[in-house]
Structures are given as structure tokens and as C-alpha cells.
């Protein structure tokens, strides 16, 4: 298992209040919790483990696409260009681009977690000692002002992992528009997007045989117990992953195995047998669907790369 540090889901805002989100999410008629709270230190380590599972094809497939096509993706990138990465996680994918580029003006990783940024910088210093790395600790769901000396330079944005799929389409569109503003003028973005496919394959990717994704999901209840004096019995809930064909998304739920009353601090929540807490959505897009969404955020999808089996896509978005 990878080192257990908080990954800071890219969607996490500073000062995000876990307690308030839990109390409000569990009070709804259809109970739900925001997926960004899956990524405490334990959850982040479990997510790293998920990325290496046989059923979880997105990470290795995207890496294969990047390795095969990095030189094309980096066309026009040179000493004047600034590479801007949105969100952290393992830097394996960034290193593929950095290893393939001839020259680069600077690399700017943007992440909400200072510690994730410091780790990335220390790692990159070893392999790319001459690279100018500028850390920006910020929430990138709103446009970000880049340092004055690079603001007018040509920029290449990078947003791998299909994290865009964890946002509902309206929010995803707003996020893409914010990235366009951050990268303007002459914006370009390389973004990983998981593709629609056989629902059985999708469900297996989110409900693996070894039970790592189940542990990742159930850790949310353990986190409530740890941090908010919760009384969840983890054996009284099970992980479920389903494909919702109407919305084109995989859904993760925690299913109550019996009628029960659970306390969180002073509050109490009633669960009926079979009732669920909806914990994550992972939207899947066909290539034309994603093109259309990018367009409504002011981008044009100029090129798309995929693997031989059509599992995953990497789009190059451009904005004049
Ligand atoms: C972070 N994100 C892109 C993952 C996904 O595939 O939606 C999160 C994940 N949840 C369960 N497995 C992976």
C-alpha cells in the first residue's frame, strides 16, 4: 500500500466542514455524502491500492495512452511553455510528460494539499533537478491567477485520471470553464476521460474481488466514527456499485443490512434495511458526449487518443 497521506481530493475546498456535510447528508430523504470525504489518509492509501487492481483498468490504460502519445501531446511545447497540473495524487503520469518533453519553462502543480505539493516537489527535484517547479496551494474549481512572470506565457494544462467524471455534468462544465480561464490566453488542456462501456466491466472496476473498493467506501463510515464520534457498525453496512444507464454513471452506495439507529455525536439517524447512503458518482462519456460538454465550457476538442480496446480517452482541448 502506498504511503498513507491525505490526497486532498481535487474537489476539496479549504475549510471544508466534514461534520456539517455529514449531518446534512444523512438528514436527507435519500442519504448521501460528498465523495471528496473518501480521501482521508486511510482512504487515500486505499485509493492508491485501487489504481493497481486488475479490475480497475483506468489508471494503467491512461498511462499506456500517455506513454504511447506523449510526443504528440507535447507538440509545440518548449522553453517558453508552462505545464499546469490540476490536482495531485501519484505523479507517475506527470513524469511521463516531463520525461518526454525537450524543454519546459516551468511546471506548476496546483493542489489544495501543501503536503502533497511538497512531496511532489521533493520527488521531482531528484529526477528533474533543473526543472522550475512553482507550487500553488489552491482549490482550482475557481479560476486561479498564475504568477505574473508566467501568466502571459503559453500554457499546457493537465488533468488526468478521469477525475472530471466525479463531478455532475453541470459542475464539470463549470470546472472546465474555470480551467480555461486559468490557462488563458491561448489555453490548451490534456484531460483523461473514462469511456462508456459494458456496464458489467464498469461495475467490476468499482467492486473488485479483493474488496479494496469496499474497504475504501466503508472507510467513510469509519472516518465518521473516528472524527465525529460516530457509532456506525461497519458489519451492518455493505458496499454496492451499480451502473445507472439513464445518467451514464457508476454509483457507489453503502447499504444498511438491517433496520438500525446510528448516532453521530449528539445526532441520531434511522436506517431501514436496504436503505443506502450514496457516496460517489463516476460519470462515463462517449467521445462525442465529452466533446459536446467541453464545447459548452468554451473548449474545442482538437485531438483524442484512446487505447486499442476503447476503454479510456485522452482529449486535447484548445481555446483560442
Ligand atoms: C478519483 N476517481 C477518478 C476515481 C474514479 O474512478 O471515479 C475514484 C474511485 N472510486 C472508486 N474507485 C475509484
Structure characterization notes:
The strands form three sheets. The chain has a seven-stranded mixed beta sheet with strand order 3-2-1-4-5-12-11, sandwiched between helices. Strands 6-7-10 form a three-stranded antiparallel beta sheet. The chain has two domains: 123 residues, no CATH class; 171 residues, 3-Layer(aba) Sandwich (Rossmann fold). By secondary structure, it is α/β, with parallel strands linked by helices. The protein has ten helices and twelve strands. It is globular and about 60 Å long. The structure holds N,N-dimethyl-L-histidine. N,N-dimethyl-L-histidine binds next to strand 10. N,N-dimethyl-L-histidine (AVI) binds next to strand 10.
List the defining traits of the structure above.
320 residues; alpha/beta; Rossmann fold; seven-stranded mixed β-sheet; three-stranded antiparallel β-sheet; 35% helix; globular; binds N,N-dimethyl-L-histidine
What is the element string, with H for helices and E for strands? Answer: HHHEHEHEHEHEHHEEEEEHEE
Strand order of the largest sheet: 3-2-1-4-5-12-11
Shape: globular
CATH class of the largest domain: Alpha Beta
Helix share of residues?
25-40%
Which cofactors or ions or other ligands sit in this model? N,N-dimethyl-L-histidine
Number of helices: 10
**What summary fits the major beta sheet?**
7 strands, mixed
Query: What is the rounded distance between the termini?
Result: 43 Å
CATH topology of the largest domain: Rossmann fold
- Per CATH, the superfamily of the largest domain is Vaccinia Virus protein VP39
Helix and strand composition category: alpha/beta
Q: What is the strand content?
A: 15-25%
What is the residue-mean pLDDT, rounded to a whole number? 93
Count of extended strands: 12
Shape-level CATH architecture of the largest domain: 3-Layer(aba) Sandwich
Residue stretches low in confidence (pLDDT < 50, at least 5 long) are: 1-6
Rounded Rg: 20 Å
- The tally of structural domains comes to 2
